[in-house]
Write the structure tokens for this entry.
Amino acid sequence: MQGKQPGVIETGSTSGRLSISPVSGCLFGMRYISMIPNMSGSHLLFFILINDRISMKEKMSLLLVSGTADKLMAGAIIASGAIANDMEVDIFVSFWGLMEFKKGASKKVNLSYDGIEIKDEVLKKMEQKKIPSWMDMIKQAKEVGDVKIYACAMFADLMDLKKDDLDPVVDEIIGVSQFVSMAKEAKMTLFI
């Protein structure tokens, strides 16, 4: 068996690699659906996952705390890249980043200090090349893959924000300890 890879496991008297409790049908958090004999006399075991800690995909955790368009765009591009690599993505937004996820947030494009000198040139080229906004990229990533966006409960409470105050792209308001618990299961965690 190859770790967390779902699919088919070969078992039977010839392989002897796997034992299943016939009573529960459970093995390592998986439940088998059926066993079908194959030509070699062993069986092919088809199973489904029943434990959400066993994941079919690798996971990326992303923390967005900056509210500048260039850093939000970087987060959206990285999330899209993770989706293209068949990863799940959990995005935790807090501080100035969370303020950009409010309904009706300013559409004014602010860039970090690093990009201030070329702001006008970059924005002009993005418009010419029809580059979607960071928010449109995140929405597209959510449509294509498994992307969840979580608002920081502490900062939302500080700013008197409720779920209804946030863009519908935000899935839930959670505490940092809940996000850290999710991030422990991630292959990588990035801070922007």
